[in-house]
Amino acid sequence: xxxxxxxxxxxxxxxxxxxxxxxxxxxxxxxxxxxxxxxxxxxxxxxxxxxxxxxxxxxxxxxxxxxxxxxxxxxxxxxxxxxxxxxxxxxxxxxxxxxxxxxxxxxxxxxxxxxxxxxxxxxxxxxxxxxxxxxxxxxxxxxxxxxxxxxxxxxxxxxxxxxxxxxxxxxxxxxxxxxxxxxxxxxxxxxxxxxxxxxxxxxxxxxxxxxxxxxxxxxxxxxxxxxxxxxxxxxxxxxxxxxxxxxxxxxxxxxxxxxxxxxxxxxxxxxxxxxxxxxxxxxxxxxxxxxxxxxxxxxxxxxxxxxxxxxxxxxxxxx
Amino acid sequence: xxxxxxxxxxxxxxxxxxxxxxxxxxxxxxxxxxxxxxxxxxxxxxxxxxxxxxxxxxxxxxxxxxxxxxxxxxxxxxxxxxxxxxxxxxxxxxxxxxxxxxxxxxxxxxxxxxxxxxxxxxxxxxxxxxxxxxxxxxxxxxxxxxxxxxxxxxxxxxxxxxxxxxxxxxxxxxxxxxxxxxxxxxxxxxxxxxxxxxxxxxxxxxxxxxxxxxxxxxxxxxxxxxxxxxxxxxxxxxxxxxxxxxxxxxxxxxxxxxxxxxxxxxxxxxxxxxxxxxxxxxxxxxxxxxxxxxxxxxxxxxxxxxxxxxxxxxxxxxxxxxxxxxxxxxxxxxxxxx
Amino acid sequence: xxxxxxxxxxxxxxxxxxxxxxxxxxxxxxxxxxxxxxxxxxxxxxxxxxxxxxxxxxxxxxxxxxxxxxxxxxxxxxxxxxxxxxxxxxxxxxxxxxxxxxxxxxxxxxxxxxxxxxxxxxxxxxxxxxxxxxxxxxxxxxxxxxxxxxxxxxxxxxxxxxxxxxxxxxxxxxxxxxxxxxxxxxxxxxxxxxxxxxxxxxxxxxxxxxxxxxxxxxxxxxxxxxxxxxxxxxxxxxxxxxxxxxxxxxxxxxxxxxxxxxxxxxxxxxxxxxxxxxxxxxxxxxxxxxxxxxxxxxxxxxxxxxxxxxxxxxxxxxxxxxxxxxxxxxxxxxxxxxxxxxxxxxxxxxxxxxxxxxxxxxxxxxxxxxxxxxxxxxxxx
Lengths: 319, 338, 381
Ligand SMILES: Cc1ncc(C[n+]2csc(CCOP(=O)(O)OP(=O)(O)O)c2C)c(N)n1
Description:
- Chain A is of the alpha/beta class.
- Chain A has one domain: Rossmann fold (3-Layer(aba) Sandwich).
- Helices cover 42% and strands 12% of the residues of chain A.
- Chain A is built from 10 helices and 9 strands.
- In chain A, helix 7 (215-232) links the parallel strand 8 (206-211) and strand 9.
- Chain B has 2 domains: 7-177, 3-Layer(aba) Sandwich (Rossmann fold), CATH 3.40.50; 191-337, Rossmann fold (3-Layer(aba) Sandwich), CATH 3.40.50.
- In chain B, helix 1 (7-21) packs parallel to helix 6 and helix 3 (61-73) packs parallel to helix 4 (92-99).
- Chain B is globular.
- Chain C has 4 domains: 7-83, CATH 2.40.50.100; 88-140, no CATH class; 164-251, Rossmann fold (3-Layer(aba) Sandwich); 259-366, Hexapeptide repeat proteins (UDP N-Acetylglucosamine Acyltransferase, domain 1, 3 Solenoid), CATH 2.160.10.
- Chain C is built from 8 helices and 30 strands.
- Chain C has helices spanning 73-83, 102-110, 115-121, 129-141, 148-154, 173-182, 216-224, 239-251; strands spanning 7-13, 20-21, 26-31, 36-40, 45-49, 56-58, 64-67, 164-169, 188-194, 204-205, 208-212, 230-233, 259-260, 265-266, 271-272, 277-278, 283-284, 289-290, 295-296, 301-302, 307-308, 313-314, 318-320, 325-326, 331-332, 336-338, 343-344, 349-350, 355-356, 365-366.
- Chain C has a 7-stranded parallel beta sheet, covered by helices on one side. In chain C, strands 10-11-9-8-12 form a 5-stranded mixed beta sheet, with helices on both faces. A 5-stranded parallel beta sheet of chain C has the order 15-18-21-24-27, with no helix packed on it.
- Chains A and B meet through helix 5 and helix 6 of A and helix 3, helix 4 and helix 5 of B.
- The structure holds thiamine diphosphate.
- Residues 74-75, 120-122, 150-153, 180, 182-184, 248 of chain A line the site of thiamine diphosphate.
């Protein structure tokens, strides 16, 4: 039986315990953000991925984290933590404290670490990810790129331009659709005609589908998709159906109480909890709670970021 | 002296050399493969010489620049061509919200060596959506450079500088300049020098008078407008009007204003000419900067010249009416002078 | 053709249509604003005219075509349309007398002369900036011997766009009123004040320096050295002073200027002399005549067909009706009404509040009998 070790959250073991630990870490961190916002300690906004942690953990763990490139969007905390586990770097970034991954310039929607990039413009990252994957292919690194897109973002034309080029040129990229059925407040049915899962097929892109309710099954599908992309040097499309448990950002949930109650039944954390030994479960929960609590405490003690941050001065010319 | 290269030859040579010198340079755009070699032939011969690194793309300007962004983030040096400058609006999101943002918002931890080349300008009868000069829309975007060589610049050298730069660069070519020979040296009647020869994108100073005289009028202009200057300077010289033309290649950020302010204060009369419309434009910004540093030293208000605020018509005589001509610039010069 | 010409008129056609011509023969004569010139055949051949006598042609429009065989005008026009290479109207030779560089023209304009004046002195030459400077140097060396009327036209000392620079005599409250008016007049501004009060010297009034005493030699020198263009007297309280300065300085050749506040209205055909100060909201009615060196405070009206002499001083609100006739050196207080056709003799003094309905002999003093009583207001507390 596993115990909570220091590398507990970033271990490469693809087991229920680890997935659960990582998902819980994401859940707790996101809840902390909402709480910090409520306390007035967070400037701006956050889009938490509460309810969608399984997608982040299952897909990211299917990648080769040493070399693969990830592009994500406004709802990226889960992807970020699954990628690097840097709770302090994320907290500091969002709270404008020293040691944030982007010096406090980027904030929640604009994160960067190693091969992980996010941006807050819906759809714009799709061609960037294709370009990144093309660069890896041309350089022969063996890496692939992954891009996370929401169902609402499937309304953007640039996404389809990217699929077209990726298929046409054999670019090793995995398009991941995180289909939570809603975009901000607009249900999918009100935004899209037809079926999102068949769209990539039109470009001859192999499409995989999975449900985030079962993280291990989702992971297996993701592994298959990633393997295909890497081996065949071509794009693939992975449609993950999931549920957003929390609000879009903060206090902006327009869905009915019944709908939310229904969604709570689909919480992937519950699903894993049932599979785990209660004692082990408690151990993980304690470890995660401790980890996040200490991180928050520690980051809040750090000074606010200095105003003369390097990023703001690059190539600015004379003013 | 050997025959000067035409603008298109200079650019083409620079692309060849850049690709030969650095295997990270990749070129892509619509219809750029041989034998066609691009709508304006700047990429002619490239796909034959470097078949692995020259891509013809679907018609998708947003993704062309988006892909270039991804390539640039991952260690390549992409040079994307947009067939007509007018189409840059489709790539505006990638330029403004991606290329210009990544290095700064990731706190300087990534570089973005991107060049987006595109031809702007009218005078060819292509009509409203294939004739504009939209570069001003990208001027003033922080962390994005807008570069436009004139015929008095070594366009190829400017392009090499753009490719070598760690910053995203929108590189404006002018359709009417392509076939013209570059003029990089002084002639008997025209003094050619650089204000700041060591700058990445230097500013040319042209004068139709010799040392020891001071100018009557200072003309600040860029890019395609430079095609009028050889004739205009000659005409003014016949009329004894001493003109100093300052032609920066860097439209944004603006080059340091001090030498321009000194020149403006020296002549006391300034005309700013640009190919696009003037409202909220490059010339407006330049004029504001000049006023900030030489208010009170000018003999008369700065006059701006640009296209009429309307669409650019296709019919020749209508197009002529809307676009800047040698005569409009001449009239502006006479206006500040009298 | 001349530099300003864009068209020419065909005044004579020297050949028959269809006639055979030789290169160099005169085919027609054209006229521009500056001269008449011959147009010669450019080739041997048969001529077809495309213009007629009296016709006006733009530069570049064909006058005629000369063909190797006789050809009709229609065929030629069709051919021209097909190749669009018109026969160019030749530039007149020997018309260089009417040409100059733009720089020369602008320098001339800035100096208040017409370029044609310079061109007349250098016939047959393209006038350059240097020629204009030479012309100006020679002009200023020559004594001006023309009559005033001609001088105004030919050698206008105040060309459009040039600001008249004034010296103000007296640095007191009158000067402040004048400076206030000048601040609103784009074409005039004060460069100096002269005042005999030595404590004012080296100081300034509203930014205008008080440069020294009231000294004709000094002011004359300023004008000769082109530092000032004219003078105006701000002193309204001493009529003898006004008159003495005006008469002596005019005799010494110092020009006097009028300062008319832009809110004042001057009617048609009104005549105003020199050295007058006309302040805000005054009216000089149509056909009224104002002499020299008068000082009109705000809200004065010299109504239509009235005549005002010289060296008078008006307080605010002096209103004449039509055809009043006011002699020299009259002085008026505040708030005075003058009925139509009334004459006020010279050197009279009219006190505030008078209403004149009969003529006033010269050297009279008028004091208003209008009276009022002041009593304490009863205030309820
Ligand atoms: C180009 C652009 N348009 C609009 C927005 C505002 N916006 C941010 S998130 C969002 C909804 C996105 O929905 P979806 O793609 O389904 O992702 P989800 O929020 O459900 O994860 C919108 C409209 C944006 N960030 N970018």
